[in-house]
Amino acid sequence: MLGLMQDQPLLISSLIEFAERHHGDGEIVSRRVEGDIHRYTWADVARRARQVANALEGEDLLFSDRVATLAWNGYRHLELYYGVSGSGRVLHTINPRLHPDQIAWIANHAEDQILCFDLNFLPLVQAVHARCPTVKRWIALCDADKLPADSGIPGLLSYEAWMGDRSTDYAWPRFDENSASSMCYTSGTTGNPKAALYSHRSTLLHAYAAALPDVMGISARDSVLPVVPMFHVNAWGIPYSAALTGCKLVFPGPALDGKSVYELIEAEGVTFAAGVPTVWQMLLTHMKPGGLRFSTLKRTVIGGSACPPAMIHAFQQDYGVDVLHAWGMTEMSPLGTLCTLKNKHLTMPADAQDAIRQKQGRAIFGVDMKIIDGNGAELPWDGKASGDLLVKGPWIVKEYFKGEGGDPLVPDAQGHGWFPTGDVATIDADGFLQITDRSKDVIKSGGEWISSIDIENIAVAHPAVLMAACIGVAHPKWDERPVVAVVKRPGAEVTREELLKFYEGKTAKWQIPDDVLFVEAIPLGATGKILKTRLREQFKDYRLPGL
Ligand code: ADP
């Protein structure tokens, strides 16, 4: 017997319809590429998203055709999120920090038909457009009078000229909720880019889940700043959860430096912000010397790579801002776990609470997780046993776009497919996940594992250290030994010996790195994460002292 509830597909268009009707006057504030601040409302987003849909109807596109963006976080990008997916096309957000060769490769692989870009990416588009034969329309996200006269891009149109005079009437089509809505290529730190292809259903379920109180806890009373980019994994789903809750949205545009982000937080009464640790590092570095304080910021989600304990401490104890440490991946839409405390933790001393916040947190309803040993046997949730982390759930990929990489899932005894995350983790009795490392970054020394994250966290707790990255280097006896590459804070001094001494008592003696490599900069990937592959390449001729 089937239930007798209405059969209404979960579609992205329903989010924008809801936003318009229920919080049409809610504010969307964007710092534009031009540098000025743009303000309008959810009703305006909805109206202009319908104009985008009408403009797309004029482009001879098929259902599920890909429309790409190379754009910062801003209101026009948001209109494309709704106009493209809502009308049944697939929004392909491209990461502009990728190498032009990779961008051309991705646009071809996705068979993008239209590509919309922020004007400051014009040089990038000029470099790749001739190599993107599937793209039949190039659109610059600007006013008609800002369109460069001799761009060299055939048929280049300004976004405003393209959609601005279209009708604001459009009936969003109804279709299968499992239809593709958007796509994102993995940033390639783990090999060739492969695309996760999200569906309307997966996106809506993720949007509901992300807004829950023990997840991001977004409400109509929040002013939300996604520093995390809309060009990578849909800004952690915030553009969708925001429409669902009616919060104010504040977009930073291209200005991600500490000063600009701080000023935006203060000017727009931001209560909740989301970003990767490197962005928050820039913010805290800007705030500290002048003794700046937050007047409205209450919570910040930090994820994408491990949040150093020193950063958690600074936000929690120096600034009174709650840190929600989160873990996820492109293949997971991206949210998997988020660290909010349970009732029994609230009476603990602040330092003990911070120790829990260092973990990546509890699984969100909708995400099943388990850790397994080398033979595939499930490991206990005791906070000690560490194994390969597998996940399953309705917003986790079952395969990659065009079947690249074959079937990624690992079946269990019941035949259910689990996605192997490539991460190594522990899970404690309360269900708190802690990522030990990425499996390929773990350092294997004498048959034992050393977590590169632990080694990095200790280094960045030293006052003279701005950034640290730990890699394993070959050793004839131990197979691998850890060394740590370190960027010093401007004007600060620390010697190799002082830093190695700093490790004593903070980790087991045999886990202390064998050497400290002082560097000017640590290579970062397109999503602001440390590029260990590049670092290993950089030190491929390095030999450990005494060998
Ligand atoms: P890519 O795989 O393309 O680098 P993703 O953005 O999908 O990009 O990255 C997912 C990976 O990032 C995870 O598998 C994990 O290794 C790492 N990661 C994400 N969040 C955290 C976190 N809070 N702590 C530690 N690692 C994290």
Please, could you describe this protein's structure?
With 547 residues, the chain is of the alpha/beta class. Among the domains are: 12-18 and 34-199, Rossmann fold; 442-538, GMP Synthetase, Chain A, domain 3, CATH 3.30.300.30. The chain is 28% helix and 25% strand. Strands 1, 2, 10, 11, 12, 13, 14, 15, 16, 17, 18, 19, 20 and 21 form a 14-stranded mixed β-sheet that branches. β25, α15 (496-503) and β26 (515-518) form a beta-alpha-beta unit. α10 (258-267) packs across α11. The longest helix has 16 residues, at 42-57. The chain is globular, with a radius of gyration of 24 Å. The model has no long low-confidence stretch (mean pLDDT 95).
Descriptive keywords:
16 helices; 14-stranded mixed β-sheet; binds adenosine-5'-diphosphate; 547 residues; 25% strand; alpha/beta; Rossmann fold
Q: In terms of per-residue confidence, which ranges show pLDDT below 50 for 5 or more consecutive residues? A: none
Number of alpha- plus pi-helical segments: 16
- What's the main sheet like? 14 strands, mixed
The hetero compounds bound to this protein are: adenosine-5'-diphosphate
Can you tell me the CATH superfamily of the domain at 12-18 and 34-199? ANL, N-terminal domain
Q: Specify the CATH architecture of the domain at 12-18 and 34-199.
A: 3-Layer(aba) Sandwich
Strand content: 15-25%
How does the helix and strand content classify structurally?
alpha/beta
Strand tally, please? 26
Which radius of gyration do the C-alpha atoms yield?
24 Å
- Principal-axes shape call: globular
CATH class type of the domain at 12-18 and 34-199: Alpha Beta
**Average pLDDT, all residues:** 95
Helix percentage range: 25-40%
User: Distance between the terminal alpha carbons, to the nearest Å?
Assistant: 72 Å
- The CATH topology annotation of the domain at 12-18 and 34-199 reads as Rossmann fold
